[in-house]
Amino acid sequence: MNNATVGKHPCPECGGDLQWNAAKQALACPYCGTIVPLSEAAEGVGDGSAGVVELDLLEALSRMDAQAAMPPPLPPLQQGGVVGMLQSMAATPAEQRGYGGQPREVQCQSCHAISVFVDGRVADRCEFCGSPSIIAHESLGDAITPQSVLPFKISDGQVRDIIRQWYGTRWFAPSKLKRAALTDTLKGMYLPYWTFDAQVSARWTAEAGHYYYVTVSYRDSKGNTQTRQERRTRWVPASGSLQHFFDDELVPGTVGVHPELLAKIGRFPTSTDLKPYTPEFVRGWTVERYQVDLRQAAEQGQERMQEQTRYLCSEQVPGDTQRNLQVQATYSKRTFKHILVPVWLVSYTYGARSYQVLANGYTGALAGERPYSAWKIFFTVLGAVLGLLLVLLVLGGGR
Ligand SMILES: [Zn+2]
Ligand SMILES: [Zn+2]
């Protein structure tokens, strides 16, 4: 994918750039309002997961090694020059880089999130934390192009209802939160994730423990002989093998969203509604550039697969208990994807802290942080104390 061939799916009526519309679940023209269903959209816009590509992980990592072995990057002035261009061409095929369109990138000085605006929009504050200190981020076109995107399913109208309900059940939440949640600080963002696939074949050995019971005689406190049942374990060597395919182990690449919240809003389905990436899906929305790079993410994904493999092997060990499990695993067909998933985000500052309310843009699951309004608590307590005083006065007067 390069900028010349990507993102050229203009409106059939007026030629404007199409954008994904969550409420209509279709591409829409922001200029004339024409709706273009996905199946009728120009070739290259996804109509299913058939076109979603998995990339070879080891090949990509060795390409990154080759890049790392090159001389360090040139100072910014020359970076666009011929040498810089040759460097990046040698290291990375251009068709797998960048986001398409005419993206503008900014980095927040406070939370460090990097926002990409495929439509070239200009932001005046960070959409992740609300900080006004943002600076242009030189993209160098080096980000690995997302292979696929999970388009928004929950529209902004729907998510406002969900947030309103949530706010209604928060005691002592400051009114500022309500204002932030229900006005234009609600942002739709695409977060970067890495997904990893691998085939594992493993051999394991272990000692399987089988319980058996023996009758033991003993003398009680009165000196009489008694018997009781005692459990013993017979250890038997065991071994076996395992074949397993890991499909879409997800590793988040975001720094802008608080990880506890991300963990609470549930999974993003990656097997059904993923579409091959084109800039139409993200134009008009904000994309976060990944900051967990492929190598770090691959290590995290690999660790999780190893834990899972060990667990699956231990499940195979027969008997009632086990010890000394040894697993020898080889992983093959390792592939990865860079995908974008949708979230709705409200961020606001209260006191010195920044708070986020996050909703899954596909399922609507919501998780939020909230401060307690000192004023609301103060007046509630004051009201209770005054009420109590009044009751005492009335009781006292009646005596
Ligand atoms: Zn149009
Ligand atoms: Zn920020």
From TrEMBL:
The lineage of its organism: Bacteria, Pseudomonadati, Pseudomonadota, Gammaproteobacteria, Lysobacterales. It comes from Stenotrophomonas terrae. This is Zinc ribbon domain-containing protein. Keywords: Membrane, Transmembrane, Transmembrane helix. The chain crosses the membrane at residues 374-395.
